[in-house]
Amino acid sequence: xxxxxxxNGAYVPEEEAMVSVFDRGFLFADGIYEVTAVLxxxxxxxxxxxxxxxxxxxxxxxxxPVDKDELLEIHRELVKRxxxxxxxxxxxxTRGAADRDFVYPKNVKQTLVLFTQAKTLTDDKAGIxxxxxxxxxxxxxxxxxxxxxxxxxxxxxxxxxxxDDAWMVEDGFVTEGSSNNAxxxxxxxxxxxxxxxxxxLHGITRSSVLRIAAEMDMEIEERxxxxxxxxxxxxxxxxxxxTFVCPVxxxxxxxxxxxxxxxxxxxxxxxxxxEARKGAI
Length: 281
Ligand code: PMP
Fold this sequence. Notes:
Blueprint (H helix, E strand, L loop, with lengths): L3 E4 L2 E4 L10 H5 L2 E9 L2 E2 L2 H14 L8 H14 L5 E8 L16 E8 L9 E7 L14 H12 L4 E6 L2 E5 L3 E5 L5 E3 L10 H12 L4 E3 L4 H5 L3 E6 L3 E8 L2 E2 L7 H17 L2
Helix pairs in contact: 5-7
The structure holds 4'-deoxy-4'-aminopyridoxal-5'-phosphate.
């Protein structure tokens, strides 16, 4: 069945949603995106995603294409028109279409696209296996641009090895997963995840999960860790908007703990989903 997507002010069948060949998103990856989870037909973590969108656009000297209220309205209208109970809403803003030039064009109308993806998000997490892969991305990973070829290549390396995903490594330390933040739980029960910087995306789920863990009186250490430390950990897991908290059972061939989803990741996933549901709008 064809979806209804949003394109520059109009709700149109996906087959009719067309963007110019001169769009700078297409020519320069000159665009920002967000992916927001939908639970029970409601938008999760809306506030966080809008804030990050505004920040990412700001780094590229772009304004918000529409204000926050209108953005929420578009999300809700898409959920309604596509009968979405559970899944994701993908949003992309580009600088717009202009003759090809490295200089940012002036007075160009931004392109704003949103579409839904139906997907069950709340099923039990079986866990994933990851490989280590060199982090070959650019230096501003805190900006959520649409240039996703490097993580896509990492994902393909993982698939070629018969695994699910890759943990990217730079200067000997794990940065993050191809499209998620990475964590370990030490044998002492401490949660370790990379500190915020330009080296990683500042995950919205990361922020909530760390808050929940702190409320559960868990110890948290925000610092870089190596693949070897991760392989020796009691647990490992990832977080992302539509993955929530997902256990990692194997890292580069080494089984983590007893190879089954651990209690910390499982508990954090349950509580995170409860809270995301409560906060959804
Ligand atoms: N890191 C990267 C590289 C990502 O692509 C994502 C998902 N967009 C995340 C982390 C997780 O971020 P969030 O929790 O906001 O989805």
